[in-house]
From TrEMBL:
Keywords: Isomerase. It comes from the Eukaryota. Coiled coil: none annotated. It holds the Pfam family PrpF. The lineage of its organism: Eukaryota, Fungi, Dikarya, Ascomycota, Pezizomycotina. Transmembrane segments: none annotated. PANTHER family: ACONITATE ISOMERASE-RELATED (PTHR43709), DUF453 DOMAIN PROTEIN (AFU_ORTHOLOGUE AFUA_6G00360) (PTHR43709:SF2). Belongs to the PrpF family. It comes from Ophiobolus disseminans. This is DUF453-domain-containing protein. The keyword Transferase does not apply. The keyword Isomerase applies.
Length: 383
């Protein structure tokens, strides 16, 4: 499932949220409890090997979770009492424990697809999906600034390490000798620069506490972004962006590959970094923002706006971040596999069928070598 590039080799496991879990497991480090409808688990698939990665979340994939859950009948029954209008689905991502409100239109008992909202890098238009990310920070380390510093020197380069919706490292494009507005195909030809950025990424990941050593750093997080000032440049469509159309320019890498647009979680983290005085991102912002209260980010396919809201008492802590996306079903099918282990045999997992635990969360914890015993204990305390 997927294609030959890291940004397209992805799976989301979607299931109704087990409400008993809210009283037994506290995953949202920010303390924002709320009634939840859906759990979803993001899985990244290796493109050159058989690796299955559950280290972080994918914001763009989260766009499809609410409409998919609605169409698949996974939501509470009261949601389906209305067959038209606006619906909000409350989602938990099991990889990070973070919460998302997905708001979209339904028409005739199905999530709306047709609309006039367009996104740079996405063909055509669609119905708007509003995503409100709650407390979009500390997804991996529990801190906005994992190293405790706004600026760090890593592998000889000045960087800002920010743990937002996903952890990210920001470095000035000019410091590593790369054109900040470079396009992916040209970037792929710079193997030495890509190797340098991967070394910086791994060293920074250790400094952030994400991995104990560089050889254990996950392949997809943290991501690394090259930041430069807003400038007139071409994007992948062949069109030219003017410098006044953006507040800054960012080029992100994932799994050593340049992104053709910008990962949504990386955009959220960029917006958070832009609100923290002294970070590399904040230093390179345009003096006059394109839109008040929003950060307009230039990427290889165009631009994207994120509206971050910071805590009034502590301006370095984000309370929420809002973005708008689209999604539509492309096809429906079945995937078959061969499992050589019998369910329930010694050494294998026994999930059961009637519990209120999250199977996706169990999958994430097992991949991280953590216990899942608390997920399979019923309300009376029996395993």
């Amino acid at each position: 499932m997927g294609a030959g590039i890291s940004s397209l080799s992805k799976i989301c496991l979607v299931e109704p949220h087990g409400r008993r879990l809210m009283s037994t497991v506290k995953l949202d480090r920010s303390g924002g409890d709320q009634e939840l409808d859906i759990d979803y688990t993001f899985v990244g698939l290796g493109i050159e090997n058989s690796e299955v990665d559950v280290a972080g979340n994918c914001g763009n994939m989260s766009s499809a979770i609410g409409p998919y859950a609605y169409n698949a009948g996974l939501l509470p029954s009261y949601v389906y009492e209305q067959i038209g209008g606006e619906v909000t689905v409350k989602i938990r991502n099991t990889n990070t424990g973070k919460l998302i409100d997905s708001t979209f239109e339904v028409v005739g008992g199905q999530a709306a697809v047709i609309g006039d909202y367009t996104i740079d890098g996405v063909t055509g238009s669609g119905s708007t999906i509003k995503l409100d990310f709650k407390h979009p920070y500390g997804s991996k380390t529990g801190k906005v600034l994992p190293t405790g510093n706004i600026l760090d020197t890593v592998a000889g380069y000045e960087v800002s390490c920010i743990d937002g919706a996903n952890p990210a490292i920001f470095v000035r494009a000019k410091d590593v000798g790369v054109d900040g507005a470079i396009l992916p195909n040209d970037f792929n030809k710079l193997s030495e620069k890509l190797g340098l950025l991967e070394r910086i990424r791994k060293a920074a990941a250790v400094a952030m506490g994400i991995a104990p050593s560089e050889d254990l750093v996950p392949r997809t997080i943290p991501k690394i972004g090259l930041v430069s000032k807003s400038s007139k440049h071409l994007v992948l469509s062949g069109k030219s962006l003017e410098d006044k159309q953006m507040d800054l320019v960012v080029r992100f890498l994932s799994d050593t590959q340049p992104h053709r647009a910008i990962p949504l979680t990386a955009a959220l983290t960029t917006a958070v970094a832009a609100r923290i005085p002294g970070t590399i991102v904040e230093q390179l912002l345009a003096f006059d923002p394109v839109m008040k209260d929003a950060i307009t980010i230039g990427h290889a396919s165009g631009w994207l706006q994120v509206n971050p809201t910071m805590d009034k008492e502590d301006p370095s802590v984000p309370v929420s971040a809002t973005v708008y996306r689209t999604a539509k079903r492309l096809f429906e099918g079945k995937t078959y596999w061969i499992d050589n282990n019998q369910v329930g045999s010694e050494g294998s997992s026994t999930y059961g069928s009637g519990g209120t635990h999250s199977l996706g969360l169990a999958f994430v914890l097992e991949n991280r070598g953590q216990s899942t015993e608390h997920l399979f204990t019923d309300v009376a305390g029996n395993s």
